[in-house]
Design goal:
The chain has 408 residues and is mostly helical. The chain is built from 18 helices and no strands. The radius of gyration is 22 Å and the shape is globular. The N and C termini lie far apart (45 Å). Keywords: Hydrolase.
């Protein structure tokens, strides 16, 4: 059975007061291009709305996480995943007295830079771009937010607040310095982010982000893990019985089966997943409250200077998180059915890159014009921007148009 834990104390809904260490919209460091304030929305609400109305956000509907779009319409897409992350981030932020609009904005934006075909597409594009600075989906998200969305009359990008951009860039922690993860230290800061931070707005790349971005990062983990279990079971990649030995997960499924004998498979999965989400969210809140009570940050700036995250799982839940990721890697991401699809996806992305980079005139006119008279690395980045913006369906259609039906 799952470990017993004391229930969280109820908190009031609206209106509620922000904690001193929350990010205060009225004290925002502002936008790169100054704009008049809105009489009806806070700066962070405007950030969220701009993200929702962006072209890149709409395209997430046809970008998948694990499966290609034609595998079935009941699997998660990047859009549904981002909405689920935003829901968890809002709920946690409200309970903790943080700015839930900022947390939601970071959550909705965090996957905008993903290529078609999920991680397989990103790995292929990174390989193709290796001589020209590589490809990183977080850096691509930042390119979208600061350059590639071109709809506003007075600026490129979405001209988001400093706090939102900082949260997107650093939601998984500092990019440099002692607080940076081994993964972050393994490669240089992406050029787009480094240049913006050095020349436009200092994003303090060696520091921790505000608490709302930290919440969004762990909301991503919760949504990703639990809903990949859901999708893996729906796809028949592994049976419920395979989960029985997993700590946290196995006991939850067992408890539901024992409480509701003969329960339908779909109800069993949904009931178990919702309980898993609740256990992980409750653990996150308790551990975060414990850390905040110890550190007593008097402001968001003080929280950033603590040198460690304030929003976190307990050690026990962190262990469960690692174990669950390992299970999904072995039983889902490395499943024969998935690897066959990802190999085809890699080939599609690599061949499209070679096709466009070999002759940029093959790009649509507005993209081809950006390659005229520029260095190879600049042209390669334009091609990468174009391919990264494709949906699964469009990438397959374009590949078929140029190479025939070999991708099927």
């Amino acid at each position: 059975m799952p470990a017993e834990s004391s229930p969280l104390a109820p908190r009031q809904t609206l209106p509620y007061a922000l904690q001193p260490y929350a990010t205060q919209a009225a004290q925002s460091r502002g936008r790169l291009m100054p704009e008049p304030g809105s009489p009806t929305r806070s700066p962070f609400q405007r950030d969220r709305d701009r993200i929702i109305h962006s072209t890149a956000f709409r395209r997430l509907k046809h970008k998948t996480q694990v499966f290609v779009y034609h595998e079935g319409d009941y699997y998660r897409t990047r859009l549904t995943h981002s909405i689920e992350v935003a829901q968890i981030a809002r709920s946690v932020s409200r309970y903790l007295g943080l700015d839930e609009d900022l947390a939601e904005a970071v959550a909705l934006a965090h996957d905008l830079g993903h290529t078609p075909f999920g991680h397989a597409g990103e790995e292929a594009l990174d390989a193709a771009m290796a001589p020209y600075g590589g490809f990183d989906h977080n850096a691509q998200t930042f390119r979208i937010l600061t350059r590639l969305e071109r709809h506003y009359a007075e600026f490129d990008g979405l001209n988001l607040t400093w706090e939102c951009l900082e949260g997107v860039v650093k939601h998984n922690g500092p990019l440099v310095g002692p607080g940076a993860s081994a993964k972050a230290r393994a490669r240089p800061v992406p050029q787009t982010i480094a240049e913006y931070s050095a020349q436009s707005q200092d994003l303090e790349l060696d520091g921790w982000p505000g608490p709302e971005a930290q919440v969004a990062a762990l909301a991503d983990d919760i949504a990703y893990n639990t809903h990949d279990i859901d999708d893996g079971l729906r796809a028949g990649l592994f049976p419920v019985a395979a989960l029985s030995e997993l700590p946290l997960v196995g006991p939850v499924f067992t408890e539901v089966q024992e409480r509701y004998p003969g329960i339908e498979h779909g109800r069993l999965v949904h009931e178990s997943i919702r309980r898993l989400i609740d256990l992980m969210v409750s653990d996150l809140i308790r551990e975060t409250e414990h850390r905040l009570a110890e550190a007593k940050p008097a402001s968001v700036e003080a929280l950033r200077r603590l040198g460690r995250p304030m929003v976190a799982f307990s050690d026990e839940m962190s262990g469960h998180d690692v174990t669950l990721k390992a299970f999904l890697f072995e039983h889902m991401y490395r499943h024969d059915r998935v690897t066959r699809m990802t190999e085809r996806a890699r080939r599609v992305v690599l061949e499209l890159f070679g096709h466009y980079f070999g002759d940029p005139a093959r790009l649509p006119a507005e993209w081809a014009a950006q390659c005229d008279g520029v260095r190879q690395d600049k042209a390669a980045r334009v091609v990468a921007d174009y391919i990264a913006g494709m949906t699964d369906r469009y990438a397959l259609q374009e590949h078929e148009r140029f190479f025939g039906r070999s991708s099927e």
